[in-house]
Amino acid sequence: MKLYLLYYDTDGSGAREEWSVFYTPCEIFLTPEQRQARIDFIKKQVDEDGDPVDYVYELQEHEVMTDAQITQWDQDGS
Fold first, then answer.
1. Which long-range contacts (CB under 8 A, 24 or more apart) does 17-20 make?
2. Dist. CA 9–CA 11, nearest whole Å
3. H or E element: which one contains 68?
4. pLDDT tens digits for range 23-69
5. What does the CA dihedral 53, 59, 35, 66 come to, rounded to 10 degrees?
6. Which of 52, 64, 65, 78 gives the lowest tally of CB atoms within 10 Å of its CB?
7. How remote is the C-alpha of 3 from its chain's centroid?
8. What phi, psi does 54 have (nearest 5°)?
9. Is residue 34 within 8 Å of 2, Cβ to Cβ?
């Protein structure tokens, strides 16, 4: 199983060095299409001045379990 992560900068600086696990948004998706739909939605938002948001995005993909591991886990759990 692969998870698709989306991190994005909400303070406008774009400096990844300032990102923190405590306040930088991290969203998890099951497909890259769902993640892209979320990015598209976020890009349509506007800030307090009515300007489009200008976030920096970080996309990551992580394989949590392979198909063989999921099958084995399913067989062991039955």
1. 19/58
2. 6
3. helix 67-77
4. 788 999 999 999 999 999 998 888 788 888 778 888 999 888 777 88
5. -170
6. 78
7. 9
8. -125, 75
9. no
> What single-letter amino acid sits at 70?
I
CA neighbor of 25 nearest in space, from 47, 68, 70, 57: 57
Q: 64: left (phi > 0), else alpha (psi -120 to 50), else beta? A: alpha
> Would residue 50 be called left, alpha or beta, if left means φ above 0 and alpha means ψ between -120 and 50 degrees?
left
| Entry pTM | 0.70
Q: Which residues contact 10 (CB under 8 A, 6 or more apart)?
A: 24, 25, 55
Spell 52-67 as b/e; 16+ CB within 10 A means b. eeebeeeeeeeeeeee
Both structure tokens of 29: 């998706």
Amino acid at 18: E
